[in-house]
């Protein structure tokens, strides 16, 4: 995004307040986030035929699944890797998983093999929907190993909200974060995206406001 057009960063609590406002108004925020992420994926990754989704237990994972559904509609091959079921409180993520199943798609709990004679073709893009701006503790397993494997693979990554493994307000690394080539912030950018020390993880970034204004 052109630095001159970048909106001011907001704190985690401010972004959450805007999100609640939108949900209270009945706005389809996850649908909008998924559509926006899919559009950016197609713009950034050219040519793009195969995509892996890293699906976390919260609404960030739901955003990834929703983006994946749009990419399927665009004719891409999409593989969803989901090591754990959605958290009990993540109702939108649970609904996204149900919709993923309704369109005939399944999830797998581990990454496909990325080396060896019988390894499947590597994807053109990985969408990181493991953890968004709400992460506030160290990355545990299997998340850290999955992130390490993706980082070592060199496959381009588009992170949703913020690269998984970073704190939104400070940019603090809670383990070894995803090294994204691109990041899309939903609603507003977090302070971490403006931290020069975070650039090696965030890559280039853009914002989808989802129809909400600070």
From TrEMBL:
Binding site for K(+): 60, 128, 164
Binding site for (6S)-NADPHX: 59-63, 132-138, 161
GO molecular function annotation: metal ion binding; mRNA binding; NAD(P)HX epimerase activity; nucleotide binding
Ranges where the YjeF N-terminal domain occurs: 10-214
Database matches in InterPro entries: YjeF_N_dom, YjeF_N_dom_sf
Entry EC no(s): 5.1.99.6
Keyword field: Isomerase, Metal-binding, NAD, NADP, Nucleotide-binding, Potassium
Family as reported in the entry's similarity comment: Belongs to the NnrE/AIBP family.
Biological function: Catalyzes the epimerization of the S- and R-forms of NAD(P)HX, a damaged form of NAD(P)H that is a result of enzymatic or heat-dependent hydration. This is a prerequisite for the S-specific NAD(P)H-hydrate dehydratase to allow the repair of both epimers of NAD(P)HX.
Name of the molecule in the record: NAD(P)H-hydrate epimerase
Gene coding for it: nnrE
